[in-house]
Amino acid sequence: DTLITLAKQMPKTELHLHIEGTFEPEQMFAIAQRNKVELTYQTVEALKAAYQFNNLQDFLDLYYQGMSVLLHEVDFYDLTMAYLEKVNDENVVHVEIFFDPQGHTERGVPFDTQIKGIYRALQDAEKKWGMTTRLIMSFLRHLSEESAFETLAAAKPYLDWIDGIGLDSSELGHPPEKFLRVFQACKDLGLKVTAHAGEEGPPEYVWQAIEQIHVDRIDHGNRALEDEKLVETIRQKNLTLTVCPLSNLKLCVVNDMTHHPIKRMLALGLNATVNSDDPAYFGGYMNDNYSALIKGTGINKAELYQLAQNGITGSWMNKEQQQNHL
Ligand code: ES4
Ligand code: ZN
């Protein structure tokens, strides 16, 4: 269909992408083998068969298992470069990627090993293709605020490479306010901040992200739609929502793509964007997310363009860079 062709061809941005969530089973097994580590699953097929999730936690359990084979700088480079090559072929021109340092430091992989590999791949993509990139360090919310502070301390020598801070992992039971002080410290360092909120968590967590963390953006935000006053606040503050359609489907945030609220978000005047979250686990990269929305929700051409434009204006590019893409 012509809208799907259009979506494939148009220049796109990705604002919500966990680099560890791009770990394809084939590459996972290859790196496991060269690092001489064992995976719980014996074959690519057995692993893929396990990708059926009832909720966020089901997915996170496999996500942390998968990343455990990443040991050396070259592993982080190869992972990141494989992702960048894929999305470059999909006409993605700008990416803002999350990494989860605590998912690696907790297993003894130093912070600098991780960031050096990831950052070198980002630099290579900028040089090779003129892609523009941002790096977002994300705190794991199931861990303590103290652990987040330790992570921030480890990041201090690399702040020139880090554009923003995120908050991810198990949402329920770990409200944004748990990380109030560490996010204030990040803001004081001039970093942008965003937080996963309202994916599984209640509207109250989105309120906290806005009023206590003072986020520059909201990751997911689906459940904000349950609270009219919250919707009004998000619109007034002109905050961008990084929506992830296939993720929402696989994690049962929506039970069917025909029920996805993206059209409603746009109709309410919210700056919704399309993103892939953890594409290796959720069944598709940028173009697949757009295709799924087009097929499932029947978004029209104007809505398609609005989503792509929101991805530019909601990015952390400077105004001049944004203008060059509009
Ligand atoms: C995540 Cl979809 C999602 N939600 C929360 N935390 C995450 N980490 C990686 N993907
Ligand atoms: Zn996410």
TrEMBL record:
Cross-referenced InterPro entries: A_deaminase_dom (IPR001365), ADE (IPR028892), Ado/ade_deaminase (IPR006330), Metal_Hydrolase (IPR032466)
Cofactor mode of binding and number, as noted: Binds 1 zinc ion per subunit.
Coiled coil feature spans: none
Boundaries of every Adenosine deaminase domain copy: 11-326
Keywords assigned: Hydrolase, Metal-binding, Nucleotide metabolism, Zinc
Active site per database record: E199 (proton donor)
Source superkingdom: Bacteria
Molecular function terms, GO-annotated: adenine deaminase activity; zinc ion binding
Residues involved in substrate binding: D278
GO cellular component annotations of the record: cytosol
Site (Important for catalytic activity): H220
EC number from the UniProt entry: 3.5.4.2
Residues that coordinate or bind Zn(2+): H16, H18, H196, D277
Keyword Phosphoprotein set for record: no
Cofactor: Zn(2+)
Catalytic reaction equation(s): adenine + H2O + H(+) = hypoxanthine + NH4(+)
Enzyme class: hydrolase
Gene Ontology biological process terms, A to Z: adenine catabolic process; hypoxanthine salvage; nucleotide metabolic process
Function: Catalyzes the hydrolytic deamination of adenine to hypoxanthine. Plays an important role in the purine salvage pathway and in nitrogen catabolism.
Protein family (similarity comment): Belongs to the metallo-dependent hydrolases superfamily. Adenosine and AMP deaminases family. Adenine deaminase type 2 subfamily.
Protein name as annotated: Adenine deaminase
Organism: Marinomonas transparens
